[in-house]
């Protein structure tokens, strides 16, 4: 069930909030579990085996955590075996398409809940977190519906029970509506420009339109996932659960290293804590440090998809980050204008690798970027007129300044009017079937 659907906004969410707060506090965990199970089942009801798979992996993880406590000498072995089961299952579904003509669909949320359970077992094995003996509390930590399908990826200890007071329900609702608007009224509209390039054929687009399309895709991906994350955080807070922010204005970054500290923050933190630091992090020789970065970025690319373009995308980011750490990073941090001249093409060209799975099409599109330029090209002018307003809004909202202004205005009457307009415009888009699936659902 997508957050940007009529059934979620007008049926499930109001019913869930009402049921949760009508229920006595001591049994709200049961209400949350039942609501989360229904939320997931509704989304996969045409493939109910996905729910069965999730429950089996949860049972394995719960049992492994308990056994680790009883048999500390076997904790490392149990961890290796459990990670093999969890990541083996993830890799099986992600890469089945390379070997099977009719692969099974990717289970909803598997990339996210696998990382949640793997982190839990690693923390128990290393005694950095307690094993949860309460199956209800453990299940809620994994299944909590605001973060189940696309994160944020959070430690189970932070979401097994409500941990924040619901004193700002009004602000949390506003955050949800703001995220809904970013998704439906901005990201989905920008996605229309990128889709049109595919319909035209990459070999037929002019160079200015190709660059314009990359700008549109870069903004679409950001506002699609950022909007989802804002909705997830808002719903979590409405229920008393603290979920971390996943983005911190990444397009305001001066280097690619900084960009990836600000983009999908919880995924980066997971790879840092469970891959990069255990390998030695930066506290090792230069060669080992580069090796550690290479492993992290290969894993990041493979986490996003099974096609070769994701591996190339991860390797390109690895190359840029190594260059920054060894030579260029300090220079760009000191020179604001030059860092923008570097980051704009760096972001666009790496997102190009991310956006186009077919390598032949990718090569064709890359070639169009550097053909003869004509800013008066009819296709460029036509699409700029059609999408220029959305692009301008996206570029502006990708900077920190509008959010700072919005924090001041959202409690005012003017802010309330703006949110009401956003909500009903988003509702109209949902009713008209203009709500595209969240892009990160495919990962």
UniProtKB/TrEMBL annotation:
Pfam families: MBOAT
The entry's keywords: Acyltransferase, Cell membrane, Membrane, Transferase, Transmembrane, Transmembrane helix
Subcellular location: Cell membrane
Chief localisation class: membrane
GO BP term, pick one: alginic acid biosynthetic process
Membrane topology, as annotated: Multi-pass membrane protein
Gene Ontology molecular function terms on file: acyltransferase activity
Cellular component terms per the entry's GO annotation: plasma membrane
Transmembrane spans: 6-22, 27-43, 49-70, 77-98, 104-122, 205-223, 295-323, 335-356, 384-401, 413-433
Signal peptide limits: none
PANTHER family recorded: ACYLTRANSFERASE, PROTEIN-CYSTEINE N-PALMITOYLTRANSFERASE RASP
Recorded family membership: Belongs to the membrane-bound acyltransferase family.
Protein name, entry field: MBOAT family protein
């Amino acid at each position: 069930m997508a957050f940007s659907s009529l059934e979620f906004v007008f049926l499930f969410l109001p019913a869930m909030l009402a049921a949760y707060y009508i229920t006595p506090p001591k049994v709200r965990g049961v209400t949350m579990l039942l609501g989360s199970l229904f939320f997931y089942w509704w989304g996969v009801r045409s493939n109910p085996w996905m729910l069965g798979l999730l429950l089996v992996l949860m049972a394995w993880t719960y049992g492994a955590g308990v056994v680790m406590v009883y048999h500390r000498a076997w904790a490392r072995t149990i961890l290796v075996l459990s990670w093999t089961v969890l990541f083996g299952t993830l890799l099986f579904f992600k890469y089945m398409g390379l070997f099977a003509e009719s692969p099974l669909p990717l289970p909803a949320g598997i990339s996210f809940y696998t990382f949640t359970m793997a982190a839990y077992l690693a923390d128990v094995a290393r005694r950095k977190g307690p094993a949860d003996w309460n199956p209800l509390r453990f299940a809620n930590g994994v299944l909590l519906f605001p973060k189940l399908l696309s994160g944020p990826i959070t430690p189970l200890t932070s979401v097994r029970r409500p941990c924040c007071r619901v004193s700002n329900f009004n602000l949390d609702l506003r955050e949800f509506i703001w995220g809904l608007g970013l998704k439906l009224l901005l990201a989905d509209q920008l996605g229309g420009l990128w889709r049109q390039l595919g319909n035209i054929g990459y070999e037929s687009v002019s160079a200015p339109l190709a660059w314009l399309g990359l700008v549109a895709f870069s903004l679409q991906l950001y506002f699609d996932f950022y909007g989802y994350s804002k909705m997830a955080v808002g719903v979590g807070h409405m229920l008393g659960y603290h979920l971390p922010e996943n983005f911190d204005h990444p397009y305001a970054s001066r280097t690619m290293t900084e960009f990836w500290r600000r983009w999908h923050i919880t995924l980066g933190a997971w790879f840092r804590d469970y891959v990069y630091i255990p390998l030695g992090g930066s506290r090792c020789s230069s060669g080992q440090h580069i090796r550690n970065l290479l492993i992290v970025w290969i894993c990041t690319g493979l986490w996003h998809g099974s096609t070769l373009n994701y591996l190339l995308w991860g390797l390109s980011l690895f190359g840029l980050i190594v260059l920054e750490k060894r030579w260029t990073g300090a220079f760009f941090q000191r020179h604001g204008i030059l860092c923008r001249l570097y980051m704009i093409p760096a972001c666009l060209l790496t997102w190009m690798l991310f956006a186009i799975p077919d390598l032949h099409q990718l090569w064709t599109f890359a070639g169009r970027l550097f053909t003869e330029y004509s800013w008066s090209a009819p296709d460029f002018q036509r699409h700029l007129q059609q999408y220029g307003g959305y692009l301008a809004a996206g570029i502006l909202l990708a900077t920190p300044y509008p959010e700072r202004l919005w924090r001041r205005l959202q409690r005012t009457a003017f802010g309330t009017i703006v949110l009401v307009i956003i909500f009903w415009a988003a509702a109209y888009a949902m009713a008209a079937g203009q709500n595209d699936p969240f892009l990160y659902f495919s990962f």
